[in-house]
Specification:
Elements (H helix, E strand, L loop, with lengths): L11 E5 L10 H6 L5 E4 L17 H16 L4 E6 L1 H15 L8 E4 L19 H10 L11 H19 L14 E8 L11 H5 L4 E8 L3 H4 L1 H12 L9 H14 L20 H5 L13 H17 L5 E5 L5 H12 L7 E5 L13 H6 L5 H4 L3 H10 L7 E5 L2 H4 L8 E6 L4 H11 L3 E9 L5 H14 L6 E2 L5 E4 L3
Parallel strand pairs: 1-2, 1-3, 3-4, 4-5, 5-6, 7-8, 7-10, 8-9, 10-11
Antiparallel strand pairs: 11-13, 12-13
Helix pairs in contact: 2-3, 4-5, 9-12, 11-12, 17-18
Bound molecules: S-adenosylmethionine.
S-adenosylmethionine binds next to helix 12.
Length: 497
């Protein structure tokens, strides 16, 4: 975002997360709405960056805190607020607190994934469950356990405790109908298949708002749709606020959207190949979208959100005219690099290359000098699956009509190919080779070629070996650019100017 765009008239959109959620639930919204609003996800006390703070004693406490944050953060600028699930009620009450203080009203309040308050008192509904096991079961049913902790019983139990506390805020909350209409327009955002709101009339929010409300729908299964499908939510939000459609919502954007669905194959739903971390044998949409399974046929295993991130990074360097090509080190069937080429095609870019670097025979066997964790992991034992020949990757590019002179292959082990690779400058450097040595090789030989303002994307940041390589490299080179989470698994940073 340039300082010109971030003008004092650009509205601030505050976002309040769901029960147990952190500010990162709205992380993807920043890029999706960057041209219309400054998105500010709110961290609630006791969560995320505010873990050490005492959690709220009541929902009204939470609303007062959010009102303080909004009042200080808006600082005279136009503002709006969206809250999801529990966050919707907090946002609603915060709007009332600010009205009582005589503060300038919001441009709009968006209450998302939340039944109207009249459905609360006395009716102990699903998300008010008190018992921790019950909460865990409910979260499992709603796919509400963050993927990065789902295999760690202690972390799941801690998380369930947080949600249980939030559930108590909800069950102890008493709604007092307003004496006057809310001072701002209200939109109720629901999803077609949300088990929490299903059967409850969204128009009942009119009683709580004391004014007519607008009702908007997204077509996304599950309760956590602002996280699982931020793009579609952002599209609706743009429309509600009268903001222009994103480039992604027009012809070329729809092409890229379809391509992401095709490359991850959320369309024909191929089953996964059983692996150490994904035991299910049936196709599971949540795993596929999150890039947590090994697809038997799809052309990428990185999932939808990490492809969204690839798109956002490329579009950002194009917009900011950051010079350089795009590269992925570790491409498997080629899906992510096919998508990189497609983004260039969608924007009519002819002067940048996509570099496709891989052994095209799988992971390296550990050697005497290999990092000890790489040696322990023995990932080469999966090479029957991980090793994809160069011809197959080229055929995959061809299948999408995207194999041309803007695609260059670097076949071989990174420590052989990357030191002398004929890559001059890079704008996006994407690493997806899992291991310490492979990550370190790519950073060592390619990071010096990354332009200031370019992006480094680490697909496997969640894996300790890979993260160690990133930390060691950054420490050695004094890099302190902020690392940003993508989807709880991958991360990225932007090289400082
Ligand atoms: C997890 S897969 C990449 C997934 C891919 N980015 C996608 O979109 O689905 C890891 C890839 O890294 C490659 N790889 C790992 N270490 C390597 C090395 N040192 N040299 C060359 N290729 C390597 C493997 O051959 C494999 O194709």
């Amino acid at each position: 975002m340039s300082s010109v765009q971030m003008s004092s008239t650009m509205p601030v959109l505050f976002c309040v997360p769901h029960a147990g959620g952190t500010a990162s639930s709205f992380a993807a919204w920043r890029d999706l709405l960057h041209d219309c609003a400054e998105v500010r996800p709110i961290e609630l006390a006791g969560k995320g960056a505010r873990t050490r703070e005492r959690p709220y004693a009541s929902l009204h406490d939470a609303a007062t805190d959010v009102a303080d944050i909004v009042q200080e953060g808006a600082a005279g600028r136009p503002w709006a607020i969206i809250g999801h699930s529990l966050g919707a009620l907090i946002a609603y009450e915060a709007v009332r607190v600010l009205a009582d203080r005589g503060q300038p009203p919001a441009q709009r309040l968006v209450v998302s994934g939340c039944p109207a308050p009249r459905h609360r008192p006395g009716a102990r509904s699903n998300d008010e469950a008190q018992d921790e096991e019950e909460v865990t079961r409910l979260l499992q049913r709603l796919d509400g356990i963050p993927s990065e902790i789902s295999d760690d019983p202690e972390a799941v139990s801690y998380f369930a405790g947080l949600v249980r506390h939030d559930g108590r805020l909800l069950s102890e909350y008493t709604h007092v109908p307003p004496a006057a209409p809310l001072p701002c327009p209200v939109t109720v955002l629901v999803s077609t298949e949300d088990p929490i709101t299903s059967g409850k009339d969204p128009a009942d929010w009119e009683l709580a708002a004391a004014r007519p409300v607008r009702i908007r729908q997204v077509a996304e299964p599950g309760h956590f749709f602002p996280v699982s499908n931020p793009r579609q939510c952002a599209r609706v939000v743009r429309d509600e606020f009268g903001w222009p459609p994103a480039p992604g919502d027009t012809g070329s954007g729809l092409y890229l959207d379809l391509l992401k669905r095709t490359l991850t194959n959320v369309i024909y739903e191929d089953p996964p190949v059983p692996s150490e971390w994904s035991h299910g044998r049936a196709y599971d949409r949540v795993n596929r979208v999150a890039g947590l399974d090994w697809p038997s046929r799809a052309h990428t295993m990185v999932g939808m959100r990490r492809l969204d991130n690839v798109q956002a990074c490329i579009e950002r360097v194009l917009r900011d005219e950051v010079p350089g090509d795009l590269i992925e080190t570790g491409v498997w069937r080629g899906g992510t690099t096919i998508f990189m080429r497609a983004v260039l095609a969608a924007w009519g870019v002819r002067d940048r290359m996509v570099w496709v670097a891989d052994s095209f025979q799988g992971m390296p066997e550990p050697k005497p000098g290999s990092h000890r964790e790489d040696a322990r992991l023995n990932t080469h034992t999966f090479n029957d699956f991980i090793g994809v020949p160069l011809d197959t990757v080229k055929r995959n590019f061809t299948a999408y009509g995207l194999l041309d002179e803007q695609v260059r292959f670097l076949p071989g082990w990174f420590n052989d190919t990357l030191p002398a690779a004929p890559v001059e400058r890079l704008a996006v450097l994407r690493l997806d080779a899992d291991l310490y040595d492979s990550t370190m090789d790519a950073l060592t030989h390619l990071y010096p070629k990354l332009s200031p303002g370019g992006f480094v994307i680490i697909d496997d940041y969640f894996l300790a070996v890979c993260r160690d390589a990133v930390y060691d490299f950054r420490r050695r080179h004094g890099i302190d650019d902020e690392i940003r989470d993508i989807d709880g698994y991958g991360a990225f940073w932007r090289r400082g100017y």
